[in-house]
Amino acid sequence: MSKISITKKTAWSLILSINTNTKYKTKRNIIEISEQSQKNTLQIRYNRKKNYIEDTNINLKKDIENLFHIFLPIVCFQGKFQYIAHIAQSLDGFIATESGESKYISGKENLEHIHRLRAVSDVIIVGAKTYLEDKPKLTTRLVKGNNPLIYVFDPKRILRKKDIMGDIVHLRDNLDEMKKTLHDKERQTIYIEGGGRTISYFMNKNILNKIHICLCPIILGGGRPSFIPDKYIALNNQKSFKPNHYQMGNDILFDIEIN
Ligand SMILES: NC(=O)c1ccc[n+]([C@@H]2O[C@H](COP(=O)([O-])OP(=O)(O)OC[C@H]3O[C@@H](n4cnc5c(N)ncnc54)[C@H](OP(=O)(O)O)[C@@H]3O)[C@@H](O)[C@H]2O)c1
After folding, report:
1. Which residue has a Cα nearest atom 9 of ligand 1?
2. Going by CA atoms, what residue is nearest to atom 37 of ligand 1?
3. Which atom of ligand 1 is nearest to the CA of 88?
4. Nearest-angstrom CA–CA distance, 223 and 120
5. CA angle (180 as vertex; 156, 207 as ends), nearest 5
6. Could you tell me if 4 and 59 are in contact, meaning their C-beta atoms sit under 8 angstroms apart?
7. Is the pTM for the entire model greater than 0.85?
């Protein structure tokens, strides 16, 4: 195939089209992607099982290749519910200071990545403490794409009626209830954006399909931890992951497939 050079914006539009186009929701391992972009037909033969582009007429510059490598497995996911978490942590494993400051541990490239994760998701879940302390907007304002529905995870019921703004859904700890409220689509991507307690809840229950850990070159020396296990596991019984990793400005993103 002769190669077509595209911008990151075009590559992103292609990923969004794949995410919403039902013709790619196939059980096959090889997905033939073909989408019109201005005068060009962009084509990718994607091996979902290996997360590998077998053939394409797109010129795969590093940034475009990375974008496909991170997002094609997400938008080609097979299964009804897909759970993805992202957390940015210091080199010594903290996501915020003791007093709760976390803006911004990671740099602008990672912030843009977070907005992309929101844009391919149907639902975003944040913990009640994050919601109350950070007052995050949880929009996709840095990239093209729709805002997901917002669920606030609040098992200790610390949110009052007055805290709940707009269309936000107040989620206790009943995930089945959440699943019931999601409209009937073939696939639902549920994105958990923190904090550590909330991500740990999903991790400990073995619900996560994928986690993105952004390692940021700062040392906090203490603060709020990224992961809080619910039981002791001896070191030689700890699961070891095989992550892919990507440079994002000065940060490194670890992309870890769990289930
Ligand atoms: N660096 C990042 O990527 C990032 C992203 C998002 C947020 N943050 C930061 O994270 C901090 C908040 O995180 P957080 O971990 O303290 O709280 P959180 O995840 O935002 O909120 C979790 C809430 O659920 C409650 N909870 C009770 N039982 C739980 C259980 N079994 N599992 C999970 N949650 C349970 C927690 O109460 P208790 O804590 O009282 O048990 C808390 O009220 C903020 O400072 C925010 O700025 C950082």
Report:
1. 195
2. 156
3. 3
4. 31
5. 60
6. yes
7. yes
The CA 176 to ligand 1 mean position distance, Å, reads 21
Alpha-carbon distance values, 62 to 14, 52, 98, 149, 209 (Å): 17, 14, 38, 32, 25
Among the listed residues 135, 156, 134, 160, the one whose alpha carbon sits nearest the alpha carbon of residue 224: 134
- Mutate which of 99, 197, 216 for ligand 1? The one with the most ligand atoms within 8 Å of its CB, which is 197
CA 46 to chain centre: 20
Cα–Cα distance between 218 and 101 in angstroms, integer? 14
Q: Whose CA is nearest to atom 30 of ligand 1?
A: 201
Nearest residue CA, atom 13 of ligand 1?
Answer: 195
Q: Model confidence over 58-92: pLDDT tens digits?
A: 999 999 999 999 999 999 999 889 999 999 999 99
Q: Among 26, 23, 24, 31, which Cα is nearest to 50's?
A: 31
Question: One-letter amino acid identity for 258?
Answer: I
pLDDT tens readout for residues 240-254: 999 999 999 999 999
In residues, how long is the chain?
A: 259
Per the listing, tokens 């990718």 go with 44
Amino acid at the residue 175: L
Q: Which domains does the chain have, with CATH numbers?
A: 8-75 (no CATH), 81-257 (3.40.430.10)
